Amino acid sequence: MAVMAIPGKRPFVVAPEKTEAFLKEVSENSNRDLFFERLKRNDRGDTVWETKK
Amino acid sequence: MINYSFVPVTAVSEELIAVFSCGSAELDRKLSEIRFDDDITGYAFIDNEEQRIIGYCAFNASGLTLTNGHERITYPAVEIKFFALDEAYQHRKYSDEMNFSDYIFSKVMSHLYEIDENVIAIKFILLYSVPAAVNFYKRNFFKEFTPYMENDEYKYITGCVPLYYPL
User: Fold this and answer.
1) B46 to chain A: nearest residue by CA?
2) pTM, entire model
């Protein structure tokens, strides 16, 4: 099994005393540009999404 | 160039599902079950040349809640419930920089970006990872949520690690 996610048992709730630190990490870690730059560098355009059922 | 498609699990034949094997009998069975599960949306990745299932993912709407002052806010999120590749496609290189699994997962992520931009806003992608897969998600830009998580009545977490990605 190389990769897998399973259903979580706890909700994603930030502890009140951790809110500031969490928001700081979120604001400092926007990986949108890194994500798309990496995908653009590597994507050979060989996938297609079909959303019709 | 190899051609892959991402199709709704509901559109995949029973014959293809029957030969899917990711190394976990439970996850193999889940692929079949999510076709009839209204609570999650599942996609299968199809190798069009080999006519076989590369893997699948399933996600649903979720939320990430935090308290800011006296205000309790729940941000819209997507939770990835399942992500698994057939053993035949695991540990394959896609490029110098990415494994094939990274590439497939990146396509799932970019699909969620499209939903966020064109359909409905998503602020976070969430998931629980088995310990062995945490590094996979970290190299795909996810961060551990555990340091910020509120303690609650649940005393067990089955060894899995909560991770988040701000979209």
Assistant:
1) A47
2) 0.88
